[in-house]
Amino acid sequence: MVHPSIPPAAASFLEFINASPTPFHAVHNASERLEAAGFQRIHEKDNWEGQLKEGGRYFFTRNQSALIAFTIPKGWKEGAGLSIVATHTDSPCLRVRPVSKRAKAGYMQVGVETYGGGIWHSWFDRDLSLAGRVIVTDKTGTKFTSRLVNLKRPLLRIPTLAIHLDRTVNDNFKFNQETQFIPILGQVASQLNGPATLEINDKNPVIGVAGSNVQTNHHTSLVELIAEEASASPENIHDFEL
């Protein structure tokens, strides 16, 4: 919650940042603000001839993750100069792998990959959550819709060893991103009553199967959390980007 003493412009900016944990959320929220400011949404596939007018304000989006907004000043003539301002909607983060289901030492793990130039050692021992977009199918499996999700609660954690297990940690903290940078979701025992899967053990840590479905490639607990946030049934989750 933004403190009431913060200047309105700063408060509005912080509200936008807090509500935009992913590019998909940022574009969605920016679109709403543009429409509230009088901008008209247009589409790339449409014929713009005769649609754009002097004094008009327009915007369009691409892949739910990019947004282009522009205005046409009154009296503008073809060949006149342009002023362009550009930014990005993404930030360094961890992204859930297409096959994320992993397990080790009795714990469910979620395979992730790094995105961007993050200070990755600062991600250890922090509460981590999930946000992004989910592709949901209808009961017939022929219609797909995209829904934004933002699970605003601690779900995952990447732990470090206690100091007595690694006395050199304060001298030079290094880690393997493939084997030591894997968030823990919970204990395997908590999922024993879920659907049958491949055997979960240290010899078989990656238990998803590339090319199969979401329910096979990710832990049941993870899919159920995402489905609940997306107001959908787990079996109707077709894909996601988190």
Keywords:
metallopeptidase activity; Aminopeptidase i, Domain 2; 28% strand; globular; alpha+beta; three-stranded antiparallel β-sheet; metal-binding; 16% helix; 242 residues; single chain; zinc; aminopeptidase
How would you characterize the overall build of this protein?
The chain has 4 helices and 9 strands, in the order ααββββββββααβ. The protein has helices at 8-18, 23-36, 214-217, 220-229; strands at residues 40-41, 57-62, 66-71, 93-104, 107-115, 128-137, 144-156, 184-187, 237-241. The strands form 3 sheets. It has a 3-stranded mixed sheet, with helices on one face. The chain has a 3-stranded antiparallel sheet with strand order 4-5-8. A hairpin with a 6-residue loop joins strand 6 and strand 7. Pfam families: Peptidase_M18. GO terms for molecular function: aminopeptidase activity; metallopeptidase activity; zinc ion binding.
